[in-house]
Amino acid sequence: MLAVLGAAALVLVAQAPWVLPEAAGGENLRPPESIDVYIVDDTYTLKWNSSKELMGSVTFSAEYQTEELENWLKLPECQHITGTECEFSLLDSDVYVNTKFHVRAEKGNSTSSWSESDSFIPFYRAHIGPPGVQLEAEDKAILVNISHPGQGGNMWARESFSFMYKIVIWQTSSDEKKIIETTYYSEKILKLSPKTTYCLEVEAVHSSLQKHSSRSAVQCINTTASKMPTPENVELDAQGESYVLKWDYNTSLNVSFKAQWLLGYLKSIPGSYSDKWKPIPTCANVQTTHCVFPQDTFHTATFFLRVQASHGNNTSFWSEEKYINSQKYTTIPPPAIGITPTSDSFRVYVTCQDSSISKCHGLIYEIIFWENTSSTERRMEKENPTFTIVNLQPLTVYCVRARVHSVARWNKSSEFSDKLCKKTKPGNSSLTWIIIGFGAVVFSVMALYAGKCLLKYLNSVFFPSLKPPPSIDEFLSEPPSKTLLLLTAEEHTERCFIIENTDTVAVEENHLTEEDHRKYSSQTSQDSGNYSNEEESSGSESSRGLRL
Q1: What's 375's DSSP letter?
Q2: Annotated domain spans of the chain
Q3: CA distance linking residue 75 with residue 44, whole number of Å
Q4: How does pLDDT run across 177-212, given as a tens digit for each residue?
Q5: Residue 30 CB partners (closer than 8 Å, separation 6+)
Q6: Is CATH 2.60.40.10 what the domain over 336-423 is classified as, yes or no?
Q7: CATH 2.60.40.10 fits domain 132-222
Q8: Which end of the chain is more exposed for a tag (fewer CB within 10 A), N or C?
Q9: Under a CB-based contact definition with an 8 Å cutoff, are residues 289 and 246 in contact?
Q10: pLDDT in tens, 101-158
């Protein structure tokens, strides 16, 4: 009986289709394949492949995960769809972190395993969509207002300053196209013909990614009829501490002019800036084609200027918007210099005196120097403001002047500074000879002392002192209390006793008493080398002085 049941069970299993562990209800669902993501600005398109036999009978769902998330999140636009792609946006997600997607098939209560895409960073995969474009027409100009790609989205929100734009413009009656490149979000195309139809399209280029957008849709606009002439050829000059604004205007009408200025960076920011223009007080109502105003009117390095003509209630269009970099129009003051002299060199320090720190960057420093009594000049130039002038003569006056060059952008130079003269210090030769002479004297003294010590040592070894006669030696051997001769270690002189009145007194050794000895006086004397030996001269009437 058990054998029959077992055989029947095997038959049932063999006839049933294979069920995946994830599947339920007995369905064998294969997971989607070839997961891919295509991105334009902030629009994601998730695509995948599926077997044809499952199409129409199954649905698909997708989820995503970033490296900042532990869990997978559902994509609301991609739940239980019947196709093989879905479109969505991730406006709350960080486009600079790794992101991945997975998709599965579903049928009733059955689901396939997840099929996962590779991880990627959306910012680097995204394509750039066309920029937004709005046009405004004048009589001889068209104002092009541009908004960066994906305006209001998340993908390029931080990239406003990274785009450059190519404007392609042409007349409808001509095939000739003109390309204008700009980094501004508002560009005025000048010198057009009035009452003429022009068409244009705009392409965005990301400067660091080197990606090009698709071009905007072609837009066409008609320039208007000419009313009052527009001021042309706007220029700016500097005179002392003032600016002189000039323009051309060809008319015999009694017209007045006004000028305005705009902060330079505003044109690089998306959006309208028409209400950001400010009047120049001294150029508000002038009848001449120029006006003068102080340079400190603008507290910015870059700005734009424009001029408008008026006659009664009629006004012209604004002139071209002239870009101004104030560094081009300001002079560079002469630098200050300082000198630290030595005996044969100068250390020269050059200091930029401009009040603007930014204007002291990127400079080249130049100095000229000469001996005060000579007209021959030498020149040095470098990017470092510190110079070392070598091979100078001691106790000699040299003069130095300096100037700076700003060649990075405007190729401008300052005037030379006033000359500064300094005398080099005395040379070191006298001191050197003094040191050498002192050393020689010290060496000679030490050599002499060493020679004397050596000579004394050799004398003591090879020429020892002679032993005195026996009588003197015996006398010296007596106790100190019985002799008048004292030898101490501290005294290096020799004592002797002298017999007075040697011509009248006969000295006999046998009659000499101790008291008689006391009558003799003793004194120090230098050794003459002669000795009196009483044992050898007994009975002699002539006496001889004994000296030791």
Answers
A1: -
A2: 2-125, 132-222, 232-329, 336-423, 432-459, 465-548
A3: 11
A4: 999 999 999 999 999 999 999 999 999 999 999 999
A5: 50, 51, 54, 105, 112
A6: yes
A7: yes
A8: N
A9: yes
A10: 999 999 988 999 999 999 999 999 999 999 999 999 999 999 999 999 998 899 999 9
